[in-house]
Each structure stands twice: as structure tokens, then as C-alpha cells.
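User: My collaborator and I are trying to settle a disagreement about how two of our proteins should look. Neither of us wants to argue from intuition anymore, so we agreed to look at predicted structures for both before our next call. Could you fold the first one, then the second, and keep them clearly separated?

Assistant: That sounds like a sensible way to settle it. I'll keep them separate. The first protein:
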Amino acid sequence: MQLKKSLTLSSITAALLVSSSLLHAENYVSVEYLQYDESDDRVSVSAPMVEASYDFNTDYNLKANFMFDAVSGATPSFMTNANGDLFKGLQEFEDRRSAASLMLTSRMENRDELYTGLDFSREEDYQSYTGSLEYMHYLDSTHNTALHFGGSVSYNEILVYDGETGASAQADYDGESGASHVEDSLTFNLELGATQVLSKDSSLKVSAFVLSDDGYLTNPHGIVIRDYNSINPKLETENRPDKRVGYGFVAQYNKLLTPDTSFVGSYRLYTDDWDVTSHTLEANIYTDVTQKLTLGAGLRYYTQTQAEFYNENIDHFTNETYASSDERLSDFDALTYKASLDYKQDETWSYNVGAQFYQQNTITEMTATLMTIGMKYKF
């Protein structure tokens, strides 16, 4: 599940009226705390975040973000009991992650914009390095129409524990035993899109994207059972193809319904050569109750088809090359209900609170809550 920060009303209203390049980025420091909890004590995430933005002049802005989180819980996995019987239960785990990102915005003489980004993320058994570039070009002096194109490349290192088949494979699931080695993967992402201001209170943004994954794409903690109906059933690490190509498009419509209320609606289509196709529909409304208080509410619907090599049955896999029982590759749909509150104390200080409730319809139905609280200081 992807955790996303809610859009602020200021950024939404700005998108309704003019393109982002016409606005001066704020100088600020913000602090936010995120708490995410799944039902049945499956996963719990605690994450403090710090973000800072600074305008060097009218041509350059630098934004930095830092996050540290602690993850604990249990994930569905096949395992053995004391009698050697195979079953699907919850495997406990703990992890810590640190992540940082930098984004430099450069404004050209014609006021086109270039975004240059660097991202780094590290966990106990995973590291990722990402570089990105995006260029925003305006087609006329009114800045009502813009084209954007960009791309990113990620290099990922995955620590894989070398275990044996059978009962000992489960012990290696959490890295407590066995030797290890490092695998890697590369992810490329290209995007092309356009933004059009339709009127003084509405705008439309559309974009198409293609992505490519190459390398070790298997979840090293995923377990499948092979030859279940034989005299020697085996617990083994799942195996996914080492290549994946996906593509899709995104459309977002912004509308100022009244002077105090704005609407943001979006649709995203994604499909890839693993036979996974997903649709995402999202609608958000934000309203200024007073000059200081803004309330938000939203609904997000997500649905996807299962990967061609996925199966949840304990007796399915035998000698198939690719095999996974990871529920994230299954056929499922999900609803997310969102609410937010932003309070602007004065021109310097502001505060925000957000809540999300997530309901996922998979083989083992799961619900989750996401709570955020934060403050921002402008200077």
C-alpha cells in the first residue's frame, strides 16, 4: 500500500487558476508525524517527517524532505508448525527506514521550468537511489497551456538471504540465519503530458507514462509451497520474472466550485506485461469554513487484476518457473475515505490534521487507518 500525503488547499487552488511556475514557492519548514496501522496487527508504521523549502531568488527554489520510520507487524506467509505441517499464517517482522529527497526548481528566462530531483531510501535489506528530470514548457505568454516531459531512473539493491528448501526456509524469512548476497534492479520511468487552463476557475492535466523494471524483482520474503501433494512438499522463496514493462495515463480535473470550495478529480489507468491492470478513481473537495480554517474530504477507489503467475492456493505450484502468493499481486479492489483539517494561525504558523480509512478486499480482507498531524513555519 502506498502512503501519500494529502494535497493542501493552497496547491489545489493554485492549480485551478494558474500554472505552478507563476507562483513564488514559499520559504518554510514543516514537521509532520504519520501513524499507519493495519487490522489484525498486520503492519504498523510510525514516521516523523521534516520538509524545508527555500527560494534563493526568483529563478531557483530548493526543497528537501527527510523521513524516518519504524515498521513492525506480520505479513501473510506460508510456514510450518511444530509438527512440520504446512499452513498459511502471519510471519512477524520489524524494520526501520530512512529516506531523503532533494528537488531543485530552475526557472528559465522565458519562465519555463526545470525540475531536478534526487531521492534516497534505505531499509535493513533494501536501498534505492533515484534521479529525475522534468521540463515544463509554456506554449504562449498567457501561460494557460503547458507541456511537460520528464523521466527518472532508480537503482535498487536488495539483500537476499540464502536459505534451504523445507522448514529452514522459513527461518531465513526474517534474516535470522543463513548466508546472504546482494541483488539489484533498475527502474526507468518516462512521462509526457499537458496542462490546460480551461477557464478562470478550472483546469485539466493529462499525461501518459511508460515504465520498465529490469533485474531482481522477486520479493525475497515471499514464500510459496511446491509439490504440496507429494511426499516431500517444499517451502521456497517466490520467483518473479526479471523484467516488467508497464504503461498508462493519468487525467486530473480541477474546479473552483465556489469562491470558498474547490474540487479535484482524477483517473489513472495502469497495465503491464505481468497481466496486472489497475484503475484508480479519486475525488477530493476542500472548503474554507473561515479565513483560517479549511476542511477537506475525499474518496479513492482502486481495483486491479492479478498477475499471471499469482495463486493463493496452498497446493497450486509444482514446477512452474514463476510463482508468487503475494496478495499485492492478487485480484482485489479497495476504498479509501479521507478527511483533513488545516488551520492557519497567522501568516507564519499553520497546522494540519488528516485521517484516512482504507478497506481492501483481498483473500484475507484488510482494513487500515492513516493519521497525520503537522505544523508549518513560513519565513
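The second protein, kept apart from the first:
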Amino acid sequence: MLKRIVTGATLFGLLAVVTPAEAQGNYRQYGGENQLRVRVGNFEPDGESEYWDDTFFDFTGSTESFEDAVVGLDYIHRIGSRVSVMASGSGYEGESRQAYRDFVDAQGRDIRHSTFLDVASGTLGLLFHLAGADAVLQPYIGGGGGFYSWTLEESGDFIDFAADSTIFSDSFIGEGTAFGTYFVAGLNVPIGDTISVFAEGRWDSADDELEDDFTGLGNIDLAGRQIAAGLSWRF
């Protein structure tokens, strides 16, 4: 997980650096034209790809079993009264304990392994504010794109069907980075001159070809839905 967080933080830093400072214009919102936000929420993969189809055909579980926490950091810079640039970084780690659906060991026990999926993202996009900066409730929508770095690991007991269905223990790991897009919609509520609370829904769309120990097994869908809330500091 630490590697995913470091990757996401690095991408976030690079994106923040390239935010166009010259696009400030003449607009200045009450409390400052910049925001730094911390958000915590819940992410569930869509699971619409060859890897997910094959996994849930052979093993127990579903995409719901990979539902887990996501943590993110956003830097927002106003470039107009209703438009902002947003650079974001986030990290997610899901885990599911799975067993073969149709096979057990000689003692009739499940043959189990654990599957881990880590995804760290760094994105850049635009936010469109649907109400003025002095509104009590401030809805917004937006979207953009960026890079999604992932690690997939399966660790535990497996069946070697090519060797008389021998049960063996092993770990399989694959990594990669893919370009993806996102859409976000949310509501910001100021609670002071510089502090706000917010809640939002975000839909990420990305997929990548499986590599390393999973080479030849098709692609993996990294898309999913997240619901998050957090604090925002304007400066």
C-alpha cells in the first residue's frame, strides 16, 4: 500500500506543478482562490473485464467483496467565477478471501487464496461550480483524466490442473500503469471564512493489459464508483 500512496503522491505533485498559474484572471473568491482538500470514502470496482469474469466464474466472491476505503488529496485553483482546475491524487487497497467454487481438498476443505488490488491515481481536470462562491450550498460537477497505477496479487493455495490436480501454495503479482478518465459531482458547504465540508460521487474509468505473472490472461478493469466526504481549506 505504501508504494501505491507514494506513487499517487508523486503524480499529484507533478500535476500540481503544471497547474497554469498564469490563468488566474481577475477573479478572487471570498477566503482565497485556492483550495486544499482531504477526502475519505468508499470505492467499489465495476469488475467488467476478462480478469474479473474469469475470477468470479472459478472462485467465490464478487466485486462487492473488494469494496474498501479510498483516501484522496485535491488541489483546486479558481480560474474564473464558475471554473476551477483540480489536481488530485488518491489511493485504494481492496482485499478478498476466495475459494474454488467446484473443488475442495482431500479432506473436503475449501482451497483458498487471498486477492489484493491496489490502485493509486494522479489526475488533472476541471470543476464547474453551479452556484456563486458566496452561496450557502455550492454544487459542482467536473471531469478529467490521468494515470492509474495498479498492483494485483493472488497469494495462497491453488490447483495445478496440468499436474494431476496437485494443490500448491504460491503468490502471483502483476503491476502496470494505465491512462484513464473520471467524472465527479458533489456539494461543498462553507462552515467558516476558509473551511468547508463537502461530499461527492466520483466515477473512474480505466483498464490495462495484465502483465508479469498474469501475462496472457487478458485485461483488468480498474473502473469503479466512489463516494467520499472531507474537509477543504481555502487560501
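Some points you might bring to the call about the second protein. Strands lie at 34-45, 68-78, 83-104, 110-129, 138-160, 166-190, 195-205, 207-209, 219-221, 224-234. Residues 1-30 have pLDDT under 50 and may be disordered.
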